[in-house]
Amino acid sequence: MTTAEAGERPVSEVLGVPPAAHKARDRGFVLVLALLTSIALLVLAVLLIDTAIDGVPQLSLSFLTSFPSAFPAKAGIESAITGTLWLMGVVTFVIVPLGVASALYLEEFADGTRLWNRIIEVNIQNLAAVPSIVYGILGLAYIVRGPLSLGRTVLAGGLTLALVVLPVVIITSREALRAVPPSIKEGALALGATRWQAIWRQILPSSIPGIATGVILSISRAIGETAPLILVGAATFVAFNPTGLDSPFTALPLQIFSWISQPNDEFRMLAAAAIIVLLVLLVILNAVAITLRNRYQQRW
Amino acid sequence: MATSKATSDAAGPNAESVFGPARRRIGEKAIAVALFLAAATSVVITVGIVISLTGETLAFFADQAVSVSGFLTGAQWTPLFSDPEFGIRPLVQGTLIITGIALIVAIPLGIGTAAFLSEYASPRVRSALKPTLELLAGVPTVVFGYFALTFFTPSILKGLLGMDVSVFNGLAGGIIVGVLIVPTVASVAEDAMSAVPQSLREGAYGLGASRRQVTVRVVVPAALSGITAGIVLGASRAVGETMVVLIAAGQVPTTSLDPRNPMETMTAFIGATGKGDVPTGSTGYKAIFAVGFALFVITLILNTISIRFVRRYRQVYE
Amino acid sequence: MSDVDPASGSRDEPGAPPVSGQAPAVPAGQPHAPIPSVAHGDVIDHEIENPVFITEELSVSYGSALAVEDVSLSVPEKEITAFIGPSGCGKSTILRCFNRMNDLIPAAHVEGMVRYHGVDLYGSDVDSVQVRKRIGMVFQKPNPFPKSIFDNIAFGPKVLGMKGSMDEIVEQALRRASLWDDVKDRLKDNAFGMSGGQQQRLCIARALATNPDVLLMDEPCSALDPISTGRIEDLMHELKETVSIVIVTHNMQQAARVSDRTAFFIVDMGSSEEARIGRLVEYGPTDRIFTNPHDTRTEEYVSGKFG
């Protein structure tokens, strides 16, 4: 437009004409990338829709408040929900002190050049990627049977799941601690605080939102874990709520797996309904974590 | 050192008269030790895994029925039969086929997603896409197993594509495991692409490269070690994935290479056998540990490779 | 902007502030300029035949913050034009308008006009990729690709789909950057193994391989030692036979040594601390800018009194 007014040479004469094939390839490339990106999300969407279609009609108050049954119409997930809640309690109780303490040691105390500390560090990285079913084997050999011999109890299941997610808690807690700028600690030390006082009064409080987010996300991973529970839990037909740490139990993912394994379609519909309950629980946990992260996280 | 020596030589005031008596902070020490012990538990866990696995694995091979060579090369895996055979090849083969299918799915999807997020997506699109991928990564795998068995095999493979597949088949398991590991591959690969210095992109743009050319010819090659790390980590997750294959791929150890048939992976064997109440000390119980040991070693090797690759790109650009 | 007639170079603006007397004064309109008397030397210069670039009241902002305002100048062909001034004065920002590198920063917004051989570079029918094919750029820090020396040079010709023997193209580009003798025996070596000065000459060779019409250099020697800097300056003198060069430099001696014309920019603190706006103060033949500047601020800067 401007060039025409100015009576100058046309754009194409000065800059040349871009090859049409180039343009087409550029556009095709973006389309391919966008397509590749959307496929996984499309699968997620179809999964959610399919599960909702199968499961929503089964959802009712009696489904939530009944125990498993040989008759699909009477079966429910009360014992699975309470079992999952008990497991969450045990997992939280174990991973919070152990995970935060490990993270504090590695971030604030450990001399990273020492061989021993490097071993711990590499070890945690590797543990984070050990398949969860291997933890199930460990739980079966050492927690359910062997040295601890706790039996197929809530405590054994919770401890096993805690082991699965402990590396994740340590890694996310370290990130939260690292996000506190060193100047905060230096300020406290300069006022005559000891190392622990600086950590306990300044660093830890500032990193609580980040740590809490990591813990909640770890718990939400733990309650979806099925494979380790198959090995340590085994009981899928539990018609009562756990009464304590030494009680046998079932859990939502186990109940889902058990129903999927039934050849009967009606049980599979129940599995879909239980999946919806599990996903709702996960969404709630994740929403809490995201809210924590967004609202309380200190921006430095 | 020098200052304290100087003051004592000069017979000046000692530290105590200036700063007050030094305090022994036993509490500080105790806390440090306690924190160290907490961090050391992770090593204890690893040691526990290794000892429990190797102990029972050695016991497994000590049984007369099983030889190491028969275990590694045998084509029959029937540990619970009255006349048991313990060739792990069918399980390893099942694991490899399903991992291979998963990677065929996850490599293009994961790298495509990473490139889109890192090079094309606007901040707004990114901020919507990344949590969705996290959501995908957060869905329990038992749910994907349900989806593979009740929807993907009957409605997509049989219905939409008209394939002649079994109710339980390796193809559905592999494809869904592939979707499952897309967030892993994508997030590691995207980290690597984002770490490519902007100056390299500018250099290429300055030469008249288009965004596609910058992505394909500069960013992807420069991020290659990180992308490889993502793929290896994804493979490690696929090898270790239990629920999808246990539910959807079947529990029939086979040497068939046709993924339309049922096949059993190492993880599925462990899950299926551990599900029943296997008596401690039985050969079946020990077989769980022998397979678990092999699984642990494979994933450990893959993870170590992945960490190496990540380190390599961090060294180059950070 | 479209009502500016580039043929006349500029127009008189009644509201423009008074211009110091001896300047051949072509004022650019700055109705809201908070500092008085921006004494443009010869801004859009009638003496310059066939200018490569003409900017008219060019302003760039990042988000809501104005970075550089109302720059009007013209860049001659086959000469070296230097942009000097204190840091933050917008000289690099203006340079990056010449090949639309600012497009890569989503928040960047360009107002005013940049003409390249008369074509409005920011016109709706202009493809930024086409622009960068003709207008090469060398950056502050050497940025070779993590590939072999050969592949670094061949990258541009390949993405542009240039025909001909790649070996010849690479050799010619390396010769033009007087790097051939240094590297001819190790073309397959990784470029990261070269010294900083060699890397920067490699980046110049890389830019030359696509036969650009203009070479933009953004503080190309700031990361180099004096000897490497000297070699690059010699190279620039050879190159101006064939290409027009615009160089941004923080080094006044360098501008005095290599350039034919110099533009002096300044940071205007404006009303608040936050608002640091770059402006063009004076532009003219390098000899005159350094020996007989019209503006007192230019004089203070080139004599080392501030900046």
Question: In brief, what are we looking at here?
Answer:
The complex is a heterotrimer of chains A (300), B (318) and C (307). Chain B is mostly helical and 318 residues long.
The assigned structural class of chain A equals: mainly alpha
CATH architecture verdict of chain A: Orthogonal Bundle
Low-confidence stretches of chain A: 1-7
User: Per CATH, what is the topology of chain B?
Assistant: MetI-like fold
CATH superfamily of chain B: MetI-like
Into how many domains do the coordinates of chain A divide? 1
Main beta-sheet annotation of chain B: none
- The strand count of chain A comes to 0
What is the typical, i.e. mean, pLDDT of chain B? 87
Quaternary class = heterotrimer
How many helix segments of chain A? 13
CATH level 1 name of chain B: Mainly Alpha
* Most residues in contact, chain pair and counts: A-B, 84 and 88 residues
CATH class of chain A: Mainly Alpha
Helix content of chain A: over 70%
How much beta of chain B, percentage-wise?
under 5%
CATH architecture of chain B: Orthogonal Bundle
Structural class label of chain B: mainly alpha
Largest sheet data of chain A: none
Number of strands of chain B: 0
Query: So how many helices of chain B?
Result: 14
Describe the structure.
The complex is a heterotrimer of chains A (300), B (318) and C (307). Chain A has helices spanning 2-6, 11-15, 20-55, 61-64, 78-109, 115-127, 132-144, 154-178, 182-190, 195-224, 227-232, 252-260, 265-296. Chain A is mostly helical and 300 residues long. Chain A has one domain: MetI-like (MetI-like fold, Orthogonal Bundle), CATH 1.10.3720. In chain A, helix 5 (78-109) packs parallel to helix 8, helix 9 runs antiparallel to helix 10 and helix 12 (252-260) runs antiparallel to helix 13. Chain A is flat, with a radius of gyration of 27 Å. The two termini of chain A are 48 Å apart. The model of chain A is unreliable at 1-7 (pLDDT under 50). Chain B is mostly helical and 318 residues long. Chain C has ten helices and ten strands. Chain C is globular and about 55 Å long. Chain C has a single domain, classed as P-loop containing nucleotide triphosphate hydrolases (Rossmann fold, 3-Layer(aba) Sandwich). Chains in contact: A-B, A-C, B-C. The interface between A and B is large, with 84 and 88 residues.
